[in-house]
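Trying the structure run again after the queue cleared.
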Amino acid sequence: MSSTDSAAAERLDLCIRTQRVRFAGREAKLPDLSFRLLQLLSQRAPAAVSYDDIEAVVWAAHVTRETIKQRAKLLRDALVALGLPEDAIAAVRSVGYRLTVPAGVYEAPVRGAVLGRLRDWRAFAAAGGFVVTIAIVALIASGLWRQPPNALQIEIVQTQASPNFDPQTLSDVSRDLANYLARVEGVDVLADASSAGRASDLIVDFAITGPATDARLSLRLIDRHSGLILWAEDYRFAASDYDRSLAHFASNVHANVETLSLKLGRNGQERQPRAAKEEYDAILALARGAGEQELLAAQRRLDVLLAQRPGFALARALRVRVLADLVLRYGHDPRLAASAVTEARSLVETYPFAADFKYTLARAQLAAGDRAGALQNLYAAARALPFLERDILVLEREIAATGSAAPSR
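Done. Tokens:
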């Protein structure tokens, strides 16, 4: 092997057109954000690229440092799978990241592979497969043989609007939100889920509240099948300047779609029958802001429901919160709190991405007297549920008042 061939074998090559990467004879396609990050690092290598530059070039919107770190880890894992060392994507303390291996570009072949497939079909037809080919085409055309869609379906729902904003402003926000979400790899935005003839996989609901001088835009990403809030954000809103907020939210939707695979309710958490869902909704309404007797009634009904549907994760989480409230508010047996913590930990381990379940665990830990553990889980949940910041501040003050050290974020 010549020195030129040896250098090429040790080089990481990028195909800009197909967003594929190649190393040591192996090849893989990268997600859009991962490829853009790798392309930026390769262009600046061997110099480090700052967090600010990564944010501006890769996302073109404000994202958290944690989001950038998460994306760098996904890229590093993809490159390791191709045979590159783990330090190929190296973190530079307080600066950003840099690429430590040589990089180049290549053009992935397309035309030859397509022509080869066409030749295979011609040979198949010549060998007597013509009738079968026609039958397959007929099945596809008639809709009897269709592959399930690869993309997740997102529906946008407006839940609340301030009277201080005209309908056109609300329509503009909905349209622009759809445009940003449509850029997210792996999802399709349904203009009208009911007319599309199918239910969406995910819901993004938005609400604009408050006076025009101090309005807020709240956005949530919800798994339709389970009702779990997967991501939520709250922004200041001005009718003339809200693009940055939508871009930031969409970038986090992208991170959730890729890192979580969003199998919850489809290939993960079991879907529940309508009767079970209706009973859960009734119990939830009973437990909200309830007195002691209502909480006890909710506990009994949850026990019955879970005996029938032990895999109903949302019902399990609600039972944890009911038990925690009985201990915290009405002084019931502390052993209830211990069992609630055990159940909540099981939920978090099974669904580590569900912020609601981390919040549920925090409630159970509070009931069990573990304030430091509760605060740590509130910190984790608040990354996706920013409205928990108020609970965090209250708990931090309580811990400070008792002289205990609060955990670091």
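DSSP finds 15 helices and twelve strands in the chain. Worth checking whether this holds up in the mutant runs.
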